[in-house]
Design a protein that fits this description.
This protein has 646 residues and is α+β, with helices and mostly antiparallel strands. The chain has helices spanning 32-41, 53-64, 93-98, 109-114, 120-139, 158-173, 187-193, 220-233, 295-302, 369-379, 443-457, 488-498, 503-513, 516-526, 528-531, 554-563, 569-576, 579-582, 584-602, 606-623, and strands at residues 43-49, 69-73, 88-89, 145-153, 183-185, 209-217, 237-240, 242-249, 266-273, 279-289, 310-320, 330-334, 340-346, 349-353, 357-358, 394-403, 421-425, 432-436, 532-537, 540-543. The radius of gyration is 25 Å and the shape is globular.
Length: 646
């Protein structure tokens, strides 16, 4: 039924009410405490360990097939690698190049000819990834957009070469690609679209044009949260800050293995609530390990002799001011050592990355000086105005979960899978299933493959329906069309014109919450003394901002606590608002206000609030804050510092 969005009386407003022209969604997830009770009480068909993109996708897939699903996550949802991506939904431009070139990038026509090859496996991966790109863009249309990216071209022969690249990329994607087609642009248009583009490269070659290629863009951590919410809406029971202490056998007792080297039958997990310290058992007919780079730890709980299959690779990104790139078009190019580097607009800033360096598995990976220098140096090869360290607002590292093919030797880097891997650890019908590798864009397909393997081998799951996620939209997408009929511009207009939300705040809420933005504003206007500013516009109170330079508002903190399972200030600043990814200093400055709101929501004592604030400060200082010293930009033709191993 249609309801008024705003039925709250502003203090001192003498009864003047503001009502929205759009109905508010009615669904909200159960509280975390309710789902913890279910986890301890019920028996499930599938237990998913890991709440990143892949684990959330497995939970959504299994729940929408009619299976009883539990999901547990050691930290916050999407707090690891899934929150530290380049924010792209893409098919893999580098893989497309590697299908035809053994050396990237070619430096001359002769270089191009000498290193010609054909590797069809790369094309197969690109085709599969582009199919998933199209689905992912339409699955959460409020949070995704088609993003044009320019490849600057500085040699005449690159124009026909990259025209072929763009055309092939589009042909592989097919008619349902979900984004506009690629195109070659002239020098004049290239400079118009990206005014900061250098007129010549460090080797003295003048700009001759550009390839504009399209991929999708998202807000990764919030996308992960909305996948979890969609799984919960389909019936899954999910809880963050629940850590696996050990596995259970089929009879429900701690698993000790049978000494045969076989993973054996797994019947659940012994877990601990990290917020309360309580330990309990979660019983399930099938356990799926979706822990990313931490997958080996769970595999070795099932089979201590299991050979490690995960190969960690650190990828660093930096956030720069918005002037570092065009607001409507990003840039992508090949570095001198053959990597792909992006400089993209994102959330009112510019994100640049990524690198690729070996490192150790860690729950709190950190960027290094060498990696930041490498990114800035590469950016300075293509932009006119040098970017310096003091322009970096935030820097973070994520650990890619590269996976070694089962049975491959530990030192065989050629055996690293270019695709995702589904492994059954043992011959029992309910043996542990691990899903690893892949990338953000393919999370849905990875989940489908993992659940298919579970259903095919475990008779206890025979009642599962076929996968239906291709027809599914995420929570916030107005799937039924009852709220805004899929027109999210109407949502922005309603928030701005009918409710009085400032324009940039309305755009921010739409992009990050979809139709749930109406619920957030309704909650805020019901408590104007907490969440609305004192100044008024047209007789209506504005939402109070967390920080003057950003569109995030106080009400998002309370909403994250009530309806998005945020447990700590770091959850709010990193995974819910993303403010610490955008500007670490800004996040530190609003930390006291975030803690104050959370303390009110959760009933924290003064001592507990102080402890949470200190833990968040340490996290922000250690993992998000960029190096503060300045370095000169690398002159044209001078090598920049190479990436150091983390």
């Amino acid at each position: 039924a249609r309801v008024d969005l705003l039925a709250a009386r502003d203090a001192g407003d003498d009864g003047e009410l503001c009502a929205a022209t759009l109905p508010t969604p009615s669904w909200q997830p159960p509280a975390r405490e309710q789902m913890l009770e279910r986890l301890e009480r019920d028996e499930f068909d599938v237990l998913v360990i890991g709440g990143g993109a892949t684990g959330a996708g497995v939970a959504m897939d299994a729940a929408t097939r009619g299976l009883r699903v539990a999901l547990i996550e050691r930290g916050d949802y999407s707090s690891g690698t899934s929150s530290r991506s380049t924010k792209l939904i893409h098919g893999g431009l580098r893989y497309l190049a590697q299908a035809f070139q053994s050396k990237i990038p070619p430096r001359s026509i002769l270089d191009l000819i000498i290193h010609l090859r054909f590797e069809p496996d790369y094309l197969r991966i690109v085709a599969a990834d582009l199919a998933e790109r199209a689905w992912m863009i339409q699955s959460a249309p409020f949070m995704t957009r088609a993003l044009p990216m320019m490849v600057p071209l500085y040699r005449w022969w690159e124009v026909p070469l990259f025209w072929i690249v763009g055309t092939l990329y589009d042909l592989i994607a097919g008619a349902g690609r979900g984004v506009p087609p690629s195109r070659i642009v002239t020098v004049e248009e290239a400079r118009f679209q990206v005014p900061l583009l250098r007129p010549e490269d460090p080797d003295g070659n003048r700009l001759v044009g550009g390839l504009v290629i399209y991929d999708g863009q998202q807000n990764d951590a919030r996308m992960g949260l909305h996948i979890v919410l969609t799984a919960i809406q389909a019936g899954a029971s999910c809880a963050n800050y629940v850590q696996v202490e050990g596995l259970l056998d089929a009879s429900g007792v701690p698993f000790a293995g049978d000494g045969s080297g076989d993973g054996g039958a797994i019947g659940g997990a012994r877990v601990r609530d990290r917020r309360t310290g309580k330990t309990f058992h979660v019983r399930a007919k099938q356990v799926v390990n979706a822990c990313g780079v931490f997958s080996d730890a769970v595999r070795q709980m099932a089979q201590p002799t299991a050979e490690p299959m995960m190969v960690p690779s650190y990828g660093t990104h930096v956030i720069l001011p918005d002037y570092a790139t065009s607001a409507q078009m990003g840039m992508v190019w090949f570095t001198k050592d053959g990597r792909v580097l992006y400089l993209l607009p994102w959330e009112g800033s510019a994100v640049a990355g990524t690198t690729d360096a070996p490192g150790e598995i860690s729950f709190e990976p950190r960027s290094s000086d060498g990696e930041v220098d490498f990114i800035l140096g590469e950016c300075n090869r293509v932009v006119r105005e040098p970017l310096r360290r003091d322009a970096v607002r935030s820097a973070w590292a994520g650990i890619r979960p590269l996976v070694r093919k089962p049975g491959a030797a530990a030192g065989d880097t050629k055996a690293l899978s270019r695709d995702h891997v589904v492994e059954r650890l043992g011959t029992a019908p309910d043996a542990l299933v691990t899903i690893a590798g892949g990338k953000w864009t393919t999370y849905r397909k990875m989940a489908e493959d993992a659940v298919d393997v579970c259903v095919a081998h475990n008779p206890a799951l025979s009642h599962a329906r076929p996968c239906g996620t291709l027809e599914r939209k995420l929570v916030g997408s107005d799937e039924t069309g009852e709220i805004c009929d899929g027109s999210f511009d109407r949502l922005i207009v309603t928030l701005r014109d009918d409710v009085g939300v400032e324009a940039d705040v309305a755009r921010h809420l739409k992009f990050n919450y979809g139709t749930r933005a109406l619920q957030l504003v309704e909650m805020a206007r019901a408590e104007p003394h907490r969440f609305c500013a004192d100044d008024r516009s047209g007789g209506r109170a504005r939402l109070r901002r967390l920080h003057a330079q950003f569109p995030h508002v106080d009400a998002e903190v309370a909403f994250a606590c009530r309806f998005e399972f945020a447990q700590t200030p770091s959850d709010v600043l990193a995974q819910r608002t993303r403010l610490c990814f955008l500007d670490a200093d800004a996040a530190l400055s609003v930390l006291p206000r975030v803690v104050e709101i959370m303390a009110e929501e959760k009933g924290w004592t003064e001592a507990h609030a102080a402890q949470e604030a200190e833990q968040a400060r340490v996290f922000l200082e250690a993992t998000m804050r960029a190096p503060r010293d300045t370095i000169p930009a690398a002159p044209a033709g001078v090598a920049v510092p190479q990436a150091a191993a983390v």
